[in-house]
Design a protein that fits this description.
Length: 296
């Protein structure tokens, strides 16, 4: 069920149009949403009989729709928010909720409980949670079941939540592919093992491997993209940035052109963009925001 990148369907009370946050610390503009003007309904005269209200269908929850298989042409648009910023307050300023909330956690600080709590809160507020964490050990150790108890500490509580969760175990793995047990084949085997575990103990958890676009760039000759693809994954994930900046001399690249290079390798599965962005040009305000709107 491919998601066409040029189509957009507003879901529920509208998708949050906001800056996509990045763990890579690439400067970003904030995408703009037009405020919705409040509608004033004149009060009915007291002498007039009140009509029988027509029942309205409940607003569709992004999480609920995702759980029922996302049709082609649907897009859930969201953001990651700094830990010191209030997400509900920001949503209040936007006048709409985020459809997807992207969050990052680390096992070194024992943030498993925080990950589960974040997912629970997102689902209660009708957001689709997308959470990431790196494994405790190597990819090879994880693939062979050495850290299954730790994985169950994540998956079993997530299985009790009322809605779907996107879970990424080690996003952008290419940066850490060094040493024994940390090769591309180990990463793919780890994802396969995790997908099997989720199918057994947490059927509401969708495993979303997130790779770098650089792996799929035709200019790169030192890496075989096929070695990083997980055929068993229900969705395919990618982090994608415009390499251009006002000072680095690199070619301006559209989101669509880079996405097409990736789709040449993974043409059919629903696409999860974990991070995306474009650097700001102070001499051309709004340029990066336009890049991001064009991506949508």
């Amino acid at each position: 069920m491919p998601i066409r990148r040029r189509d957009l369907l507003s879901v529920g009370v509208a998708l949050g149009a906001s800056a996509a946050a990045s763990a890579c610390r690439v400067p970003r503009d904030t995408a703009v949403t037009e405020p919705v003007a409040p509608t004033t309904v004149p009060a009915e005269p007291r002498s007039s009989p009140k009509p029988t209200p027509t029942p309205k269908a409940p607003l569709a929850s992004p999480a609920a729709l995702f759980a029922n298989s996302t049709p082609a042409g649907h897009l859930y648009y969201g953001a990651s928010v700094p830990h010191d910023r209030s997400l509900p307050k920001w949503e209040s300023e936007l006048g709409q909720r985020l459809a997807v909330h992207r969050s990052y956690f680390t096992p070194q600080r024992n943030e498993t409980f925080q990950l589960i709590s974040r997912c629970r809160d997102d689902l209660v507020r009708d957001r689709l949670p997308h959470v990431s964490m790196k494994p405790v050990g190597t990819w090879e150790e994880t693939a062979f079941g050495q850290w299954d108890d730790w994985l169950r500490e994540i998956l079993v509580p997530l299985s009790r939540l009322d809605g779907p969760v996107l879970f990424t175990l080690h996003h952008e793995p290419e940066n850490d592919a060094v040493g024994v047990g940390m090769m591309s084949a180990d990463f793919v085997n780890m994802q396969r093992h995790l997908i099997e575990m989720a199918a057994q103990v947490a059927t509401n958890v969708v495993i979303a491997p997130i790779l770098q676009h650089w792996t799929f760039d035709p200019l790169r000759a030192d890496r075989n993209p096929a070695e990083w693809i997980v055929p068993e994954a229900e969705v395919t994930g990618l982090d994608l940035y415009n390499p251009w900046s006002p000072t680095n001399g690199k070619t301006w690249r559209t989101f669509a052109s880079k996405c097409d290079e990736f789709r040449a390798w993974v043409p059919d599965t629903p696409l999860v963009i974990g991070e995306y962005g474009c650097r700001t040009d102070l001499d051309n305000p709004g340029l990066a925001a336009t890049w991001m709107r064009d991506a949508v």
